[in-house]
Structures are given as C-alpha cells and as structure tokens.
Design goal:
single chain; alpha/beta; 3-stranded mixed β-sheet; 8 helices; disordered C terminus
C-alpha cells in the first residue's frame, strides 16, 4: 500500500479517465467538488478524508505524469513543507503542515488570494516550500471567479494589513490582523516531521507574486500579540 494518496479535486468527473491514463500505474482518486463553497473547503475536506499522511492534489486543468508524482514525493521527503509543480493547481504536502500552520482559510470567497495567504503563512512559520511550473496546464476560465474577478481579495486585505513603499505596487510589510479559523476536520495524531526552515531555502520559478513575499516583513498586530501574551500568562498561573 502506498504511503501517499493522489486526488483529482474537481466537479468534472468526465476528465478522470483521461487523467488516470496519463498517471498509470499511479492510482488517481476523484474527490467531488460539486457541493463545496470555495477552493479552501475543497482542499481541506479532501485532505481530511485521505487515509494517508502525504497527499497530492490537482485540478482538472493539469495533465501530470508519474514523473511529476515522483518528483513531488522526493521533494517532500527531502523536507520541503509544500511542493507545487503548478503552484496550487498541482501540489502536495504532508498533513503535518496543516497541523502546524492551520487549514486553508475558508473565509475566502470562491478562489483567489487563498494561495497568497497560504504562502505568507508558510513564511510566517519559517517553512521552506518549492514551486515551479513543470506540469502541463490547460488554460481556461476559473469556475470560482465572479464576473472575471476574484472576490477573495476583500478578505485578503482584511486579514493582512498592507504597508506600501512610496511609489511601489508591492507592499514592504504585511501585518496579520486575524487569527486562523478553527475547523472540525480530523487529521489524526501529529507525526514528528522535520521541515526545511527559512524562506531563503525556498525555491520558486516564474511566480513573481510569490517572490515578492520573500522580501516582506510579516508580523502580527499589537492586539494579537497582546492577546497571545495575556493568554499565555493565564495558562502559566
């Protein structure tokens, strides 16, 4: 039995056979995304249902081969906390990552910016990740957009306060203003896992919006820091 599971997370079961044929002899599972409210819930519910600690997820727009599966597994075993060979269209991680930094944030509407949020949270937790774009991709409109826009931007700006450098389109600092939501998904007991640390150990190609986060200062608001300190003091009394 494999110690990993591979999922097509989609509401298009008709593409399953084609994708399974490309991945043979690997076994692809179909996770129906017809009744979920957004991409974050789709990922969270799929991962929670997986019987294995390591999961690889993909959209119906990619066409990976076993080579991409094996490369993802090798990079995860080497210590990367997250591996995306088409960023968040083909990606894998161990459940321990979610135990450490929390689930995908389901407060994002549809899709859009939950990927930014997840990258920032990995940097916030000093974890290295690996992204590239080697998996073939079929470009088509997203089912999650509203009139071509990503409504998740509103929550992104509410959760992370942006500080801008003069005459720059890229913020120099992000300040967390919200804690992660707690969900009832059960990932099982924590498994000791050694991740590569430090954003300087991350690897990224051709995703300038990801590169931009490397140089930002990421902090928690004074309110959240104060709440954390006072809570810790109460626990210690």
């Amino acid at each position: 039995m494999n110690n990993y599971s591979i999922y097509l997370i989609s509401n298009k079961p008709h593409v399953f056979n084609e994708m399974q044929a490309e991945l043979a002899p690997e076994t692809l599972n179909f996770f129906d995304g017809s009744n979920v409210k957004n991409f974050s819930q789709l990922v969270n519910s799929c991962v929670a249902s997986s019987p294995t600690e390591t999961v690889i997820l993909m959209s119906d727009k990619v066409r990976p081969t076993p080579v991409h599966i094996h490369k993802t597994l090798e990079l995860l075993d080497s210590g990367y906390a997250f591996v995306g060979l088409r960023l968040f269209r083909f990606f894998g991680f161990k459940k321990e990552l979610l135990r450490r930094i929390g689930f995908f944030d389901e407060r994002f509407i549809g899709t859009g910016y939950e990927d930014y949020d997840f990258v920032v949270r990995m940097i916030e937790n000093n974890l290295a990740f690996y992204t590239e774009e080697s998996v073939p991709y079929i470009d088509s409109p997203s089912q999650w957009t509203v009139n071509g826009h990503y409504p998740g931007y509103t929550h992104w700006c509410e959760k992370w306060k942006h500080y801008w450098q003069h005459d720059s389109r890229i913020p120099t600092k992000l300040e967390r203003t919200m804690r992660e939501e707690q969900y009832s998904y059960n990932l099982g007991k924590s498994i000791p896992t050694k991740f590569i640390e430090g954003k300087h150990n991350s690897y990224n190609t051709n995703y300038p919006h990801v590169n931009a986060f490397y140089d930002m200062e990421i902090v928690s608001s004074a309110k959240l820091r104060y709440e954390r300190i006072t809570t810790d003091l109460r626990i210690g009394e």
